[in-house]
Each structure stands twice: as C-alpha cells, then as structure tokens.
Write a structure and sequence with these properties.
Distance between the termini: 67 Å
Number of strands: 0
Radius of gyration: 42 Å
Number of helices: 5
Oligomer: single chain
Order of helices and strands: HHHHH
Largest sheet: none
Strand content: under 5%
Helix content: 25-40%
C-alpha cells in the first residue's frame, strides 16, 4: 500500500499550491496545444487534399459512365464474341531452321571492305571517344 505524497507539518499552506500551479499550467498547455506543434496538422492537411483529389477523380469517372436507366442484363453487356471464320495461324513450338550452308551466299560477295590491319584493336560504336584531358574530377585520397 502506498502512501500519498505528504509534506511535513512545518511547510506553510501556500507551498503545495505553489508546487501544483506549474504542474496544472503544463497540463493545460498540453491539452490546448495546437496540433501543428506536434506535426500532425500538416500531415492531416496533405491527407485531406489528396482525399479531395481522389473524390474529384471519382466524380469525373462517374460522369463519363452511361446513365443506368434500367438494370442491364449480363448477356447484353458481356455477349460472347462471334467465332472467327478464318483459321488461326499454327503455333510454332520450335525456332525456325537456319538455311543450309549451300544456300548461303559466298563470303567473298559479303565482303565490301578490306580487312583491318593485323595489330589494331577493334572499336565498338558504343565506346566513348577518348579525349586528351580528363572529364571527371580527380579525387586525391590521402595515402598513408
């Protein structure tokens, strides 16, 4: 069993009131504190604005829909498609067969430019051109 907080007898009667007053003021300030101090007000405003946008979008979509004068029949809205009269293309289960070697053109006919010199490095088109200076900043890390 706990005892309530008791001050000694020699303390004047106004000291407990003096101690209780700041505690009560703090509690009242906490109750009447605006939500913006805690940061809730701005979040609630953002949520409210987004909710208004969503409601406007729903209104616009509802205006685009046709007015339902009577209850529509499922078969009227989702009628089955008529069958196609033309045959469908066959499904290919394997890749096409490449032509035979005798069906290919001669390699001499395909060469329209001379071969490169023997000690050159091939250049890909996607590689960037090399410049004389550096384009990115050089970072000097401390060594040691």
């Amino acid at each position: 069993m706990t005892m309530p907080f008791v001050l000694p007898d020699w303390v004047p009667w106004w000291v407990p009131l003096l101690l209780l007053l700041p505690a009560l003021l703090y509690a009242v300030a906490f109750l009447f504190m605006p939500f913006s101090v805690i940061g809730v007000k701005s979040r609630l405003e953002v949520i409210e604005a987004r909710l208004d946008e969503i409601q406007n979008e729903i209104r616009h979509l509802a205006l685009r829909l046709p007015a339902a004068s009577r209850e529509a029949d499922f078969e009227e809205i989702y009628a089955p498609r008529p069958p196609d009269r033309r045959p469908s293309e066959p499904v290919v289960a394997r890749p096409p067969i490449p032509p035979a070697a005798y069906e290919l053109p001669d390699p001499e006919e395909l060469n329209d430019r001379p071969p490169p010199p023997p000690h050159t490095r091939p250049i890909r088109r996607s590689e960037p051109t090399v410049r004389s200076g550096r384009s990115e900043p050089r970072v000097e890390w401390p060594r040691g």
